[in-house]
Structures are given as C-alpha cells and as structure tokens.
Amino acid sequence: MSDNPETHPQSLLQTNSESQRSAKNPHNPHTFVTAPESKDSSSSSKTPEKISPMAHRRLTWTVALALSFAAPSALFPPTALAQSQIQATQVSGAITGTVSDPSGARIPNAAVHVENDRLKRDTVTDAAGRFSLDLPTGTYKMDILSDGFEPFVREGIAIAGKALKPLVLTLPIATSNEIVTVDASKLAGTGADENASSLVFDSKNLDTLSNDDATLQQQVLAIAGGDGQHPPQIFVDGFSGGRFPPKSSIREIRINQNPYSAAYDGLGFGRVEILTKPGSDKLHGFFQTQGNDRAFNSNNPFTGAQPPYHTLNLDGNVSGPIGKKTSFFLAGTYNDQQNNTVVNAQTLDANNNPFTFSQAIPDPQVFHTYSARLDRQLTKNNTLTSRYEYNQINMTNGGIGLLVLPTEGYNNSTTTQTLQIGNSEIIGPHLINDTRFQYIRTRLAQTPVSSAPTVIVQGVFSGGGSALGLFHDNQDRYEFQDYLSIDHGKHFLRLGIRYRLLRDSNLSNANYNGQYIYPDLNTYQITQQGLANHLTAAQILANGGGATQFSLTAGQSSAAITTADVGIYADDEWKLNKNVTLNFGVRFESQTAIPDRSDPAPRMGFAWAVHQADKHPAWFVLRGGFGLFYSRFDAPAILSAKRQNGVTQQSYFVQNPDPTVTYTPANLTGTAPTIYQIDPHLRSNYDIISGLSVERSLGKIGSITVNYLNIRSVHQFVSLNVNAPLPGTYDPSVPNSGTRPLGGTQNLYQYSSAGEGVGNILFTNYNLHPVKWFTAWGFYVNQHAKSDAAEPGGYANFVSNSYNPHADYGASSYDVTNRLFTGGSFNLPKGITLEPFFIARGGRAFNITTGADNNGDSIYNDRPAFATDLTRASVVKTSFGNFDTSPIAGQKIIPSNYGRGPTYLSLQLSLNKSFKFGPRRVEAPDPSAPPPPPPAKGAPTPKPDPAYELGFSAEGQNVLNHVNGAIPIGVLTSPFFGKSLSLESGFFNNSAANRTINLRAFFRF
Question: What is the dihedral angle through the alpha carbons of 513, 515, 516, 517, rounded to the nearest 10 degrees?
C-alpha cells in the first residue's frame, strides 16, 4: 500500500491535561522513592457518542456543577466547608530533607506529617531517608514518627514561594517506654491516587534513568506502558500536547496514578505527568556536557563502513530569587547529533541489473531548546506561574532508511514555542481553584531532495523523489483549564472544565510528483529494460512488465481547518471509613468537525484496605474500577477530508498504467478523482474498561502490586473504500474490472468507525529498598489484544476488505505478549553509584501481505491464504508457514498481524561519581522559626553541604551488545521477507551503533 501522506495521514500524539491533586493520608510505603504527597486530577480527552434523555439530564447536572466555580458557596456554605482540610495542588514552595539516626544512618519509611490551619500533607522517607513535600505559602508544623525513635516536632517552618534549603534531621533513639508501637508508615492509603502501581521519580531518582533526553523519553513511555490499546499520554505541568522537556529541567515524573479518575479523558494507566523545576530562594546553577563518538561504540551489524558520527549535548540552567515573592528558572539545551541511518535494499544499476544497495547515510539532527519560568506569590493564598519554551529542530536526509533510498529523503525544520500561565488560588480553608492557559505555536517547513516520481517496488525498495513533497504546516494550539477542589467532610470533590482549540493551516504538494507501484523487482526490471530498448507498451506488458498502479495528486495545495474539543467533569472521592474509599464521577466530552458530538463517560472506583486496624497493617489493599474512555478524532484526517474532496484537490489512481506515457493532470482529466470524506454516521471511539488490583506491602522493604484490565473497544477508527469492487467481481488481470456499488471506477475513501477490539492485560510492579544502599523497581506486563484496526488511532489504516472490516480481526500491532522493565540504584563505596536499567520484550506483531492489490480497492494490504495445494505457483513457503498469494475459493485468509518479530533485550548501566567542595554555606536563620533541636548525645553536629559539586558519569546502552533487529519485512514477494534489515529503534538514541557509551561531566552550585 502506498504511504501517500495525504491519503494516509499520520496520527498526532494525543495528550491531555493535568489538573490538581490533594494528598490524603499518605503514610504510603508503596510508591517508588516517595509516596505521592499530592492528589493530581488531570484531564484528558476522548471522543463522542449519542446520548439518551437520561444522559442529557446527567449532562445538565454536570454542567451545573462546573458552573458552580463562579459561586462555590452556593453549593457548599461556609458552615459545611469548615469541617475538614483542603490540599493545594499548585505549589509555591517545598520542604525537603533527610532523616537520620544519631549515628548518621538514614531512616527509611519514617512518617512525615506537615500541617497548618489550612491543609495537611503526609509522605514517607525513601530508602535513603529522603522526603519532599510541595506546599503553598504559609507557616507549618512538622511531625516525624518512626519505630524505635522519639517523635520529632518542629513548628514555625515558613514557606514563602521558594524551595527551602534541605533539612537535615536527626531522630533520638526512644527509651523502652517511649517506643512507638504502631508505625504510621504501615497504614495503607485508600485514596484514589495512592495506588501502589504508580511510580514517582523525584529529581534524585531520575538518575536511575538515562541522561540522554531521547532515550529517557523512550524509557518513560515504556515504563508507563498504557492500557495496551493506546500509547502513553504525556502532560507537562498539567498540559497536553507539550514537548518532553530536558532531564535537567524536570523536577519529578509521576506515572500511572489515579487510573479511573473522571478528571482524565484517558485511563490513568499509561499517564505520564512531568513537573518542571521552579525557581529557588538562593542562586543555584547546573551545567553539563555529554556525548559519544564512534570510537566508543560497537559496529552496527546491518551495515559495513560508516561515515564518522558523534553526539554532543550541552545543557545548563540557573535559578534564583527576584525580590521576596518571585523566583526564576532559566534553562538551555543544545544537541548536535551527527548520526547515520542504514539503507538495505535491492534496486537496479545503470544497466538495469539487480544489485544490493547497503549503505550508511548521514542524517544529522541539530536541535536547541531555551526555557524560562517565573513563580510569583501574588498574595498569601495566590500563586502565579508562567513558563515559556522555544525549541527548534533541524533535520537533514529525513525519511531515509531500511528500504527507502537516499533520493527519497527530505530536509526539514520545526520551530515550536510554548507559553504556559497558571494561577492557583486558595479561596478558603476548603476550596482551591486552579486556572491554566497554554498556547503552542508550531511551524514546520519541509523540502524534498528530489521531485522525480516516486517508485515503490513492494518489499524491495522505495526510490525516486519523495512522495511527501514540499510541506509547510502552521499549527496554533490553545488550551484552557479551570479546576476546582472542594473538601467537604468525608467527601473530596473535584470539578473542572478543559477546552482545547487547534487551527492548522497547511500547504502540501504531496504526491504531486506521482507514484508508481510495482509488485516485485522482476516486473520493474522488465519495464525498465523495455523502456531502454524502446519497446511499445503492449510489448512491455506482454513480457510481464508494467506498474500495477500509478497515482498523482493535483489542484490547490493549501487548506486550513479549525477543530475544538471540550471536557467537563465532576468527581466525588468518598472516604467511607479509614479502610474504604469510593469514587464516583462523570465526564462529558464533545468535539467539533465530526458528526458525533455527545460523549458521556461515567466512572467509578473503590479501594479497600483489608483487615487494617490501628495496631496492625492491612493484609492487602484491593482496588477496582470501571469507566468509559473516549478517543478524539485526529486533525490530519479532518484536513484530508477538507482538501482532498475531489474539487479543492484531486487524487488520481490509474490501474496498470501505460509504461510509455508520462501522466500529468492534463491527460488524467478523464479519470474520476478519489474523494476523501468523514463517514456521516461516524461515532466516537470509546473503550469500556474494568479492572481489579491487589497491593501488598512488604513492610519497610517495599511493596508489590498485581493488576488486571479488561478492555472492550467500540467504534474504532478505520478507513474504507466504500466504492471498491464488490467481492469476487474483480479480475487482477483486467484493469478497472469489477462491479462497484456506486458505479463507475471512482474510489471513495471514508474515515469510519467500524472497528472493534478486545484486550486483556495482566501487569505487576514492585518497589524494593531492602537495604539503605540498594533500591530496585520493576514492571512486568502480559498482554493479549485483538482488533480490526491495525494501529492505535487507526483512522488512517485501511481495512483489507471494505465490505467486511471484521476480516482483519487479529492481533493488534501493539500486542506484545511479554514486557519487563526493571531498574535500580546501588550505592557503592567511595561515593560511586551504579544504576542499571534492563528491558526484555517479546517480538512485535507484523502483517504479512501479498505485495499486490488482489481485490481492486487500490490499497496494497491484502493478505495471503493458508496454502492448501503446495504445487500452485502462487504458493510461498516460509518459516512462518506456507502461504498462497493468489487465494482461491475455500482457502482461509491468514489473520492480521500473523507474523512475530524478534525479541528485544537491552541492559543499560550508568556509573556516577561526584565531588563536593567549596565553602559550607550557613543559611541565615529564619526569625520566625524555632532553633533546630540539638543532636543526640554523642552524635556529630550535621554540617551544611559544600557549595559546589563536580560530577562525572559513563552510561552504556545495550552493554551486552545484543543484536535487536527491527520488525521484519512482511511482503511475501520480497527477497527480504521475514528478515530484519535494521536495528530496533526503541530505547536507543543511535541508529549507527549496536552499543554506545556516553560520557558526561557536570557542575552544580
């Protein structure tokens, strides 16, 4: 099948917004590094469906609740609101520190409680005795409890819009009659976002992940995993659609929290929330350089000699105060990646003889990012945050690799500017309102290396000019959020609205150069030899030559669309008692530019700490949930339907074209153009998801969780040719044969919602810190998913039989049966740390096709049948089975994605060492805070850390040098069928080497 970008537009990354979070009880030992101290409700978006009168009444109730932002006291009078505490989500400062015993040994799992007259926060120390709590402006009291130690109390800790200097706290050993008999850290939290399957990576434990930003992103997305049906969603400071920030600018990453929240458009499993660093109360800075060179790396086994390549990354940031109420954070990154891409194909030489083309082609990328963030304490209860980011990426020789020859490359430049503004206001002792706005401006310019016609020989090579052509895309994305949190006795209520708008102004002459498709190299060779010998078209065709299809696009190249979506939600977290929490919510979504605009989505969940009492911990925590989750219909399909309507732009398809004719729009006027449209009966895709999980605390050494999810997908997006020849009426040897339901020979491509899918997923994760020098975490997934839609967001994926979409029901392309990700940190002698990260993944599914258009629908995705007569010339014998490329009556077509690629194994190791030096700065005492307690008898007085730190690290990716092949070629007529021709790109940021070593140096003050 041709990959005309106008015909089959690529999916846009669908991410959505984060909202607020309130932290309830969380003496929770389960999360990695530190328990989530705040409850983040986030919003996201998904797609529509018709609603009943009862649903309309639910919608009216939901809208009424959302509109109560303007007058919250109308729903909750002050007398009712004065019954409990509210937890803020937008932070204006933080309390961090370490907890040790008198000998200096760190104390893990100590319960840390902070409160004032407006809110309460709880967390526990990690395996290294560290803790961190984000807090709004105010003065707080801190309590720390741990078995065998006296309670620690400090009052008058002031937060004034900036992070405090880390506290160094020592707990005296308790006397025999003062030992705490119940460790609060053993109490299991039942809050909606205290699920132990979540992972929280703070700034320290991000070190267990790669220091290379591209590899870090791949690792985080892999860890998030998603629900199997959808790719993970990324939210940066609560907003969707943002770019993954550099690691040095990230304060914290939260993964898979609060899975069934109505505040989210998508399931919480697979949700990645990234919080960037705020300013600080003192001047601080960080600068680093890292990179690698070919001399450090092992060879790519899929190519020979390569041009020189290297990677250089420069990164730095500075933060500090501006007056007493404002802080800033400035950051910049420059990355020069002189990489190579590998092409392995077969083509014809100058004498039209076949030869193997294997070459490494330079495809350098240079990108740089600059960002600035300001945090301003407007009033005692009001915090304003603003962030601006500028990012530019320049790429040379894009689109090349595998079977794509260098002539089909392109150069492009993408510039993205992001502006975020957020305001968090504590309205009263029990209400918080967060208002946020984001604007993303993206400008993309792309130029092809060649404008010659594209030539595709199925499974052999793709050459000529680039089918993408000249391309300019201007996107403007706007996002507005308003979220309200209300603490009302045993009920914690969240209400919110998110509105997103996209304007896309696009200029594209994709496929204006034309595209020829040949079924195999022999047919292409006969054609080229015939043309060189000046044979007639009839002679070339009689010899077995000639393309099977020619396509050409003409007409107006520019088009613009505007589409918007809105999500409104209300959610009630009801603390039934100390062991049971119930969650009920409803979300309503709608999107413009599609027929279906009403999407009600009920949600519910529960958590039960089984057999938990004041004097003993829970046996385990049982959680479950149910909900409907919608998917948004992506903008590229809307743009194609508007532009390629047969009038604004014409797309011509010619079967078995004359090999001696040069086709132009002028001599194609008699050919009916192909039309793209959105099905007038299109329904919004939604998933019915239910799940159950069991969480077991392992005491002070960690926790383990097992989760099960069942997913039923309804109205999945696919593409059909609704005027394809009726089954059994098309003869491949007779061009334009077959009976079409609408008459003529015109193709009518329609974006439809005819797909369905089912998934069952079992996943487990563990967090362990058995000793103070070792921390480990892991995530294992066993998944089985089947679907009619070949890909996630499959609006651009054509079914193989437009009259029976369910014929494609089979393994989803993202169905990887087994996946394991595990990492950790070892504190070695001499201050050296070792961080391993291991990935093991089963083979990915891939489709096996005939390389021909067997049914005349103009789409090259037809699958063979299981061979019943091995003597037929059309039978191909492979290691995957014996297949018949020209199916006959009675033969069974093989399932979709019948093939399986190779497994993936990779071990990453990072070795780090830093040196601290310089003056030990003593901060001026806060006059409002009492003096710190004296150290225990015989214990040394803690000293402040030195002002400067110099560090070095070496990071090896795929250190075992295991060869991880990419998905094999699936075209049966290809000489490469079943073979991997390149390295798998996942979890690796270098296509030129099989193993790399990155060296890094940094300086911090």
Answer: 170
Same domain? For 264 and 212 the reply is: yes
The answer to whether residues 887 and 789 belong to one domain is: yes
Tally of domains within the chain: 3
Lookup: tokens for 19: 């909202």
Continuous segment of H or E residues that includes residue 637: helix 635-643
pLDDT tens digits, one per residue of 639-694: 999 999 989 999 999 999 999 999 999 999 888 899 999 999 999 999 999 999 99
> Looking at residues 259-267, what average pLDDT do you find?
88
Residue 596 lies in a domain: no
Burial 795-816 (b: 16+ CB within 10 A, else e): bbbbbbbbbebebbbbbbbbbb
Domain membership flag for residue 249: yes
Cβ atoms within 10 A of the Cβ of 357, count? 16
CA–CA dist 524, 218 (Å, integer): 39
SS (H, E, C) 317-383: EEEEEECCCEEEEEEEEEEEEECEEEEEEEEECCCCCEEEEEEEEECCEEEEEEEEEEEEEEECCEE
Within-domain flag for 912:
no
Provide the CA 301 distance to its chain's centre, in angstroms. 29
DSSP assignment of 906-949, as one string? EEEEEEEEEEEEEEE--PPPPTTSPPPPPPPTTPPPP-PPEEEE
Of 130, 150, 170, the last residue of a domain is: 170
- More confident site: 209 or 896: 896
Q: Is it the case that residue 79 has pLDDT exceeding 60?
A: no
Q: Could you tell me how far CA 297 lies from the centroid of its own chain? A: 29
Asked if 265 contacts 567 with a C-beta cutoff of 8 angstroms, the reply is: yes
Q: Please say if the pLDDT value at position 284 is more than 80.
A: yes
| Number of Cα atoms under 13 Å in the Cβ half of residue 210 | 27
CA dist 291 and 296 (Å) reads 10
Same domain, yes or no: 896 and 810: yes
From CA 352, how far away is CA 363, in angstroms rounded? 28
Over the stretch 100-126, which tens digit does the pLDDT of each residue have? 777 666 787 788 888 876 677 778 787
- Asked if 911 contacts 967 with a C-beta cutoff of 8 angstroms, the reply is no
Q: Of 410, 384, 368, whose CA–CA distance to 326 is shortest?
A: 384
What is the domain-level CATH number for residue 152? 2.60.40.1120
Q: Is residue 99 in a domain? A: yes
Whether residues 148 and 239 share a domain: the answer is no
DSSP 149: B
Same domain as 805, residue 859: yes
Distances (CA, A) of 290 to 296, 880, 951, 995: 13, 44, 12, 16
Same domain, 108 and 205: no
Residue range(s) defining the domain that contains residue 253 = 199-276
* pTM of the full structure: 0.80
Q: What is the pLDDT of residues 853-868, one digit of tens each?
A: 999 999 999 999 999 9
Instruction: List, for residues 356-400, the tens digit of each pLDDT value.
Output: 999 999 999 999 999 999 999 888 888 899 999 999 999 999 999
- Nearest alpha-carbon partner for 955 in 377, 74, 247, 188: 247
User: How is residue 612 written in tokens?
Assistant: 């938990």
d(CA 276, CA 286): 15
CA–CA gap between residue 190 and residue 527 (Å, rounded): 70
Do residues 896 and 847 both lie within one domain?
yes
Q: 32 forms bridges with which residues in the sheet?
A: none
Instruction: Check residue 977 and report its DSSP letter.
Output: B
756 & 820 share domain:
yes
Give dist(CA 769, CA 127) in Å, integer.
5
Confidence at 137, pLDDT banded by 50, 70, 90: confident
Boundary residue ending a domain (222, 252, 276): 276
pLDDT digits (tens, 9 = 90+) for 700-740: 888 899 999 999 999 989 999 999 999 989 998 888 899 99
What residues are paired with 938 via a beta bridge?
A: none
Q: How far apart are CA 185 and CA 493, in angstroms?
A: 26
